[in-house]
Design a protein that fits this description.
The structure holds 2 protein chains of 2 kinds. Chain A is mainly β. Chain A is built from 9 helices and 47 strands. Among the domains of chain A are: 71 residues, Carboxypeptidase-like, regulatory domain (Immunoglobulin-like); 141 residues, Beta Complex (Ferric Hydroxamate Uptake Protein, Chain A, domain 1), CATH 2.170.130. The chains are: A mainly beta, B mainly alpha. Chain A: It is a multi-pass membrane protein.
Chain lengths: 1022, 455
């Protein structure tokens, strides 16, 4: 087949769209000025019958507490005539015919309709709609749907719940708020990544579980390729949402089931995260808002470690146990080299600092009847708990413009988002050292302020500060959304956008990070730079037909997607400098080599459609489908079909329940469908050699890229869901329950291989099927709703269950020791720890094969499920007059690896938690730990190895955490400065847990756990 | 009329899903495997990756934590290990390695990856239609030689090992072990091929690529293992007879790159870069942080042995003092005359001495044993009994090759004297003559079972 170059195909698509618009144009030519010209006779939009003398109506709209409501839209029913209340809630409506029906509507309030009866002054009080379920529209990506009519599973968090939290990534504020969505922060170092599991892990590959992110209609890549952040960010993950100021976000919708995600086809398997940014509101007076906050953070939990006395006792006992009387030359802590009376709390010293967080944001919004805008700029600056010198800075600018033509046929929304993030941190996290350094280790600094190496006996942890990692990321997103009502009920739409990211990384490895005794000079200093640019564009022409006739409602959407992404990367390595003062400039390096120079492409094309049919607004059927093509697969495997069917029955609308006094809403819905995943990286199907700058004898090198398999194809997930949504007592109590079952087959993984194949894995499909099923429950209540006091409470809980349902050939495969059919994919097979031997104190493990020795894989037979049993959150919002108070508890019931899994054998030159004091001895025959050893006892080394992979190394890691507390007060001031809001926020304030380790939420050792934060802020609204 | 637009739209969308739309250009940093071997330059670049790997992260990277130089010197009796935070290497130095040892796993993985590279080059060169025959021969010859070297070390370290020349992962993933003697047989045959394929002339005057004589030297080593004394002798003699080589009389020149006693050396990446050995062993004005020479080794030198001054450096702090290996002296930025010597002619002398002695031709053997002694300023030894000869040979070779490529350990092993280590190594037991196969590899490929005895 003829190959079309990138530019050609781009032009092709653009031309198509232009053609479409030109072709559709003649019906209603568009003039240069943008005002559509309507043929005579089209003005029949105004119904006849209002021929009386028109009136001018004035009045004020307030809420039940008397506060004026700006932005309420007032319409003369049956016409397009109307107005909007101003900032003080007043309005003037001209040309209102006598007898007309005025409709007052405002989001979150019950719409009121009042028939004009001669009055010209009309003050209206709107009652808050507690749930406003019928009004709430949910963003489902390609379409919006009224919450009550949706057939799919979509979780949603609104601005109100996210505002002003002292976080730089909105995902931190979403934790615990949505059923079925489990979010873990990757590191307490600002700018790091998150692990997001929407209804469990479908794929056996970590990267195969990333959800899809869409910001204002434009997909953004779930991850930025970082080359040098291995030591500071787990899995080198960063998150694309750090480019968005959380306060700019209007809502987050997470699409979960097949009905909601199948329209994203191959990218919907792991769920879709839709971010909608705030927009200006039509008819609002121009408003300026200034928001500033300051926060301080500290490490949330510390471990209790041995003090010097306990530690030295352990060390000396270890040598006695090993029969060593002369301490070795490198046992500096006990052989007299180091001061044995010194004590340092290394947790305080290394990670005990206070990080600060300051934030300022300005936003300006406003609009006329047809056009509105919002521009916002913010700057955030955070330091780390390691040292003030490390900073994370973000500057975000965003602009939104919405317009609709006078006849309301053309709507346009454009948004631009710019973000500049710069992060400067240590190259390698030193958190691990805080738990392991000997408590009598020497001082960090000499008297002259230089680093103390204690005559080369001390690996000074602060030397790590000399080696830094910085990144600078500039992101520019543009999005355009056009809709034109071509014919009555027929809309032509175009969603398009570009996404540009420039990501620059620098890692500095100066010689000063090494002990000076190593003889390393600036001639060994190294600077690594990498520059990545990513540009992608998206074009999605769509056609939408909506029609209502009698009891039938039909909504058909047909669209196409074309996306192209180009990545270019350049990596440079400078080695050898005259002086470290020049280290940031590669021109000063004695040798510079290019470690990477690459350009890769990703192309993606699809057609998709949706048919939604409603009968009597109570029987709803929703069909979605997509055909996808992705360049990530071999030539014969590129295309695949995905689709779903969803249905809902609003039984509360049925006659037999319609008058029920207690049941206000009832809906049963279900869906079934197939989604997929192409998250495997580009070009994995090619048989190639890769260029490397590593040279020998002046010649560059080429190395085999991978084991070749062109036949792998899409991983597919079938999703099934049944849900019941109930509202009681005027929706003051709402209960949503959902049961789901997702099955992912044709698992696309890097199958682990023994080294004799030359590689550690091969990309291929496994016949394995992973099942994720579970139950989600959401309970929203409004226990109190009076004029001055209002209390809403939301509770959610999810019971996820992950299981490997089939895996033909598992026994003979390289996964034989990793997975067991019928168990979760997160199991570990461990030795069974029985306790300590009453005679020797040595660990005893169960010898399952009775061969007299503990060996793998025959004796590590205990299957431990390292998994979540249930998790959820309980949030409460209390409003009393101008006071707002809210809090959120997050809870997780789970088993995880504990500190023992990464413990170094007690008795060696590393500090230990105080729990290790419970050592076996004649006097303490029930001690959990075997007698200490310095490492010279082969048997003990071996036993410790088994111990760290035994049932003892897995434990309960359940916790309840006070995730967020907020108190705010709104002070009305006057007309110019409308009001001032003061707020105090706390994050991760309290954790209740029995976990043996640093933090139960965060079980990766060696990285900084999430922090506890207090923040104070002021918001001025003009 | 209206319908027309709708159909157009439909058709347009269907067209948009055509195959062409998801056709992408090849990445700029990758080259198709078939193309690589259609051009001498790119085929050479593929071979270069093998040298890069061997220099930077392999079992023969002497100044690294997976290099057998320091690992085996500390495993035997030449180096003391002062690490306390690198568990893999500390356990090896104390003879306490287990099957989960991460250092051992790294060595295994790196070696088999490099073997795959070599096999890929051999296959690519063989099947190339465009490469001239002489380049095909050279590419194959060097790749076979380097592969043989890796197999040789793997066999010596692990005993029975999986041996493959295939690129097929389905086959390679379930390989069983080949018996040690069969591996050696195979290597003799492979090296025979390499000798035929390789020229004796160096392709680079700095001798940074091995020639046919390097293959002969490795072959001679293997003949010693097979106790094929005559073959070992003949092969070693063939090297000595080559006009390319001459014994280096100046002890200070042994590790300088220009000597004609060098058979093959690895050149650092950039000009001025230190050899890995120089950086790795260096410490001054402080206690050792990694390794220092054992008192046992230092004591084995007599005071007038020139090597004691030339190849080791004393370091002292307060009342303590240590010796560090100092064969390579130039640190980064100052290195103009040192490359890492992999094979040097002195070894051929020792092979000859051993092969002759084992054939009871002690008088003929003696000059080859005395060559390095005399260069070091020591008296030549007079005739010895055959038992004493081997003892002297071991002692002399230890002084000559300390910290280099595990010579000490492999010599003790070949000559059946490993038990002598128990005098200085408290954890020494006989089964430790081989290392355990990495546990993870056994789990991934159960055909590698059983584990070596004792682990």
């Amino acid at each position: 087949m003829k190959k079309i170059t990138k530019t050609q195909s781009g032009i092709y698509i653009v031309a198509l769209c232009v053609c479409l618009f030109l072709l559709t144009g003649p019906g209603h030519p568009v003039r240069a000025g943008g005002q559509p010209v309507f043929p005579a006779g089209d003005s029949g939009l105004f119904p006849a019958g209002f021929q009386q003398e028109p009136l001018t109506i004035t009045g004020k709209v307030t809420d039940t507490s008397g506060e004026p409501l700006p932005g309420v839209s007032i319409a003369i029913k049956g016409t397009f005539t109307g107005t909007i209340t101003g900032a003080d809630g007043t309005y003037v409506l001209k040309n209102a015919p006598e007898g007309a029906v005025l409709s007052f509507s405002f989001v979150g309030f019950k719409t009121r309709e009042i028939t004009l009866d001669g009055q010209t002054q009309l003050d209206v009080q709107l009652e808050e709609d507690i749930t406003a379920l019928s009004e709430v529209t949910i963003n489902a990506g390609y379409y919006t749907v009224k919450d009550r009519e949706r057939t799919g599973s979509i979780a949603r968090v609104r601005a109100k719940e996210l505002e002003n939290q002292p976080v730089s990534n909105v995902l931190s504020s979403v934790q615990g708020r949505m059923a079925g969505v489990n979010i873990t922060q990757g590191s307490g170092v600002p700018g790091g990544g998150y692990s997001i599991q929407i209804r469990g892990t479908n794929s056996l590959r970590r990267a195969g579980n990333y959800p899809m992110y869409i910001v204002d209609g434009v997909p953004v890549s779930p991850q930025t390729t970082s080359t040098y952040s291995t030591g500071i960010f787990p899995y080198t993950e960063t998150n694309p949402l750090t480019a968005i100021n959380p306060n700019d976000i209007e809502s987050i919708e997470i699409l979960k089931d097949a009905d909601a995600t199948a329209i994203y086809g191959s990218r919907g398997a792991n769920g879709v995260i839709l971010i909608t940014t705030k927009k200006g509101k039509a008819g609002r007076k121009t408003a300026l808002s200034i928001n500033s906050s300051y926060g301080i953070s500290r490490v949330a939990n510390q471990m209790e470690l041995m003090n010097t006395g306990q530690y030295l006792d352990m060390r000396r006992q270890a040598y006695i146990n090993d029969g060593i009387t002369n301490y070795p030359a490198n046992a500096y802590d006990v052989n007299g080299t180091w001061d044995e009376t010194r004590y340092t709390d290394w947790q305080d010293e290394l990670i005990g600092g206070t990080a600060t967080n300051s934030n300022i944001q300005l936003s300006l919004s406003g609009g006329s009847e047809n056009t509105s805008f919002l521009i916002s700029g913010s700057h955030n600056r955070q330091t780390t708990v390691f040292s003030d010198d490390f900073r994370y800075k973000t500057t975000n600018l965003s602009a939104n413009l919405s317009h609709r033509s006078n006849d309301k046929r053309l709507t346009l929304a454009a948004s631009g988002l710019f973000s500049d993030q710069s992060n400067n941190v240590i190259y390698e996290d030193i958190t691990g050292q805080a738990f392991k350094l000997s408590p009598n280790a020497p001082a960090l600094y000499n008297e002259d302020g230089s680093l103390n190496w204690e005559n080369n006996t001390f690996t000074n942890p602060l030397a790590a500060y000399e080696s830094t990692y910085s990144n600078d990321s500039k992101t520019f997103n543009l999005n355009l959304n056009l809709s034109y009502e071509l014919l009555p009920s027929v809309f032509v739409k175009l969603n398009g956008g570009t996404n540009y990211q420039f990501f620059n990384e620098i890692a500095l490895r100066p010689n000063t990070m090494y002990n000076p005794a190593f003889g390393i000079t600036p001639a060994n200093s190294m600077a690594l730079k990498s520059q990545n640019q990513r540009f992608s564009y998206l074009l999605e022409p769509q056609l939408n037909y909506r029609h209502t006739f009698h009891n039938h409602e039909l909504d058909i959407l047909l669209g196409g997607t074309y996306q192209e992404r180009e990545n270019t990367g350049l990596g440079l390595l400078g080695y050898g400098f005259q002086s470290n003062a020049l280290i940031t400039n590669l021109a000063a390096a004695s040798t510079v080599s290019i470690s990477d120079d690459s350009r890769t492409e990703y192309k993606y094309a699809a057609v998709f459609g949706r048919i939604n049919y409603q009968y009597k607004s109570r029987y709803i059927l929703n069909l979605t489908g997509r055909r996808d093509g992705s360049s990530r697969f071999g030539p014969d495997k590129r295309f695949a079909n995905f689709g779903a069917v969803g249905a809902a029955w609003l039984f509360s609308e049925e006659n037999f329940l319609a008058r029920s006094s207690w049941l206000s809403f009832g809906k049963l819905r279900g869906s079934y469908g197939i989604t997929g995943s192409d998250l495997i990286g580009d070009y994995q199907h090619l048989d190639t050699y890769t260029v490397s700058s590593n040279s020998y004898g002046g010649s560059t090198s080429l190395y085999p890229s991978r084991l070749h398999n062109p036949y792998f194809s899409w991983e597919k997930t079938t999703k099934l869901e049944v849900a019941l949504e109930l509202g009681f007592l005027d929706d003051r109590v709402q209960v949503h329950t959902a049961w789901y079952r997702n099955r992912s087959g044709n698992q696309l993984v890097g199958i682990p291989l023994p080294a004799t194949t030359g590689f550690s894995s091969i990309q291929a499909n496994l016949p394995a099927t992973v099942e994720n099923k579970g139950l989600e429950l959401e309970l929203s209540t409004t226990p109190v709703s009076t004029r001055y006091f209002r209390w809403t409470s939301n509770f959610n809980i999810s019971f996820p269950e992950n299981k490997l349902v089939e895996f033909p050939g598992l026994e003979g495969s390289t996964y034989a020791n990793q997975y067991v059919v019928g168990y979760p994919t997160s199991i570990v097979k461990v030795y069974n720890y029985e306790g300590t031997d009453p005679e020797t104190g040595n660990y005893v493990f169960t010898d399952y094969n009775n061969d007299g020795a503990i060996t793998s894989p025959d004796d590590n037979q205990v299957i431990e499920e390292v998994a979540i049993n249930y998790f959820g959150g309980w949030s409460n919002q209390l409003t009393y007059k101008r006071w707002d108070f809210s809090f959120l508890f997050q809870f997780v019931d789970q088993r995880q690896k504990n500190y023992i899994s990464s413990m170094i054998r007690p008795g060696s030159m590393f500090n230990q938690p105080v729990e290790v004091l419970d050592v076996w001895s004649q006097d303490n025959p029930d001690g959990q730990y075997m007698p200490y050893s310095s490492g010279a006892d082969a048997q003990k080394n071996q036993l410790h190895g088994y111990f760290s992979k035994s049932t003892a190394s897995i434990g309960d890691a359940s916790f309840v955490r006070l995730k967020n507390v907020q108190l705010s007060y709104r002070l009305p001031v006057g007309s110019y400065l409308q009001d001032v809001r003061f707020y105090v926020q706390g994050q991760n304030l309290l954790t209740i847990t029995d976990y043996f380790g640093v933090d139960p939420e965060f079980i990766l050792t060696g990285f900084l756990p999430p922090l506890k934060t207090w923040a104070f802020g002021i918001q001025l609204n003009f | 009329m209206k319908k027309r637009y709708f159909y157009f739209f439909l058709v347009a969308l269907l067209l948009a899903s055509c195959e062409d739309l998801v056709e992408v250009d090849d990445p700029t940093n990758q080259l198709g495997t078939a193309q690589v071997f259609e051009d001498v330059q790119t085929a050479n670049a593929a071979l270069t990756s093998l040298y890069v790997n061997l220099r930077d992260r392999s079992v023969i990277t002497e100044g690294s934590y997976i290099g057998i130089g320091p690992l085996l010197a500390s495993y035997a009796d030449d180096l003391d290990c002062y690490h306390y935070d690198q568990n893999g290497v500390v356990d090896i130095s104390q003879n306490l390695q287990q099957e989960t040892n991460t250092t051992i796993e790294s060595i295994w993985k790196a070696a088999y990856q490099q073997i795959y590279y070599a096999n890929a080059i051999i296959y690519g060169a063989q099947h190339s239609t465009a490469l001239p025959t002489e380049d095909k021969n050279r590419l194959q010859g060097e790749a076979i030689l380097l592969r043989s070297l890796l197999y040789y070390y793997l066999q010596q370290l692990f005993g029975d090992i999986p041996y493959t020349t295939s690129l097929d992962y389905e086959y390679n993933r379930s390989l069983g072990k080949t018996e040690a003697s069969a591996v050696l047989e195979q290597l003799v045959s492979d090296l025979g091929d390499a000798i035929v394929l390789l020229e004796d002339d160096y392709r680079n005057a700095e001798r940074i690529y091995p020639n046919g004589k390097v293959a002969e030297l490795l072959l001679a080593r293997i003949y010693l293992l097979q106790e094929e004394w005559a073959l070992a002798q003949q092969t070693a003699e063939s090297i000595l007879q080559s006009p390319l080589y001459a014994f280096q009389p100046d002890i200070l020149e042994v590790f300088h790159k220009s000597g004609s006693h060098i058979l093959w050396q690895l050149k650092p990446k950039n000009s001025g870069d230190a050899t890995t050995e120089a950086t790795f062993y260096y410490f001054t004005g402080a206690a050792p942080h990694a390794y220092a020479l054992t008192g046992d080794l230092v004591g084995s030198f007599t005071g007038d042995d020139l090597r004691k001054q030339a190849w080791m450096a004393p370091v002292s702090l307060n009342d303590d003092s240590w010796y560090r290996p100092d064969k390579y002296k130039n640190l980064a930025g100052t290195n103009t005359n040192e490359y890492s010597v992999v094979f040097r002619l002195e070894e051929v002398y020792f092979i000859l001495a051993e092969a002759l002695a084992k054939q009871n031709r002690l008088d003929e053997a003696l000059p080859y044993l005395n060559a390095t002694r005399e260069r070091a300023g020591l008296d030549a030894l007079a005739s010895l009994s055959s038992e004493d000869f081997i003892t002297e040979l071991l002692a002399e070779k230890r002084r000559e090759f300390f910290t280099e490529f595990g010579h000490r350990f492999f010599d003790l092993k070949r000559l059946g004297r490993l038990d002598e280590l128990s005098a200085v190594k408290p954890n020494w037991v006989a089964h430790k003559s081989v290392w355990p196969l990495p546990q993870n590899e056994l789990l991934l490929n159960p055909n590698l079972n059983p584990q070596n005895p004792g682990y």
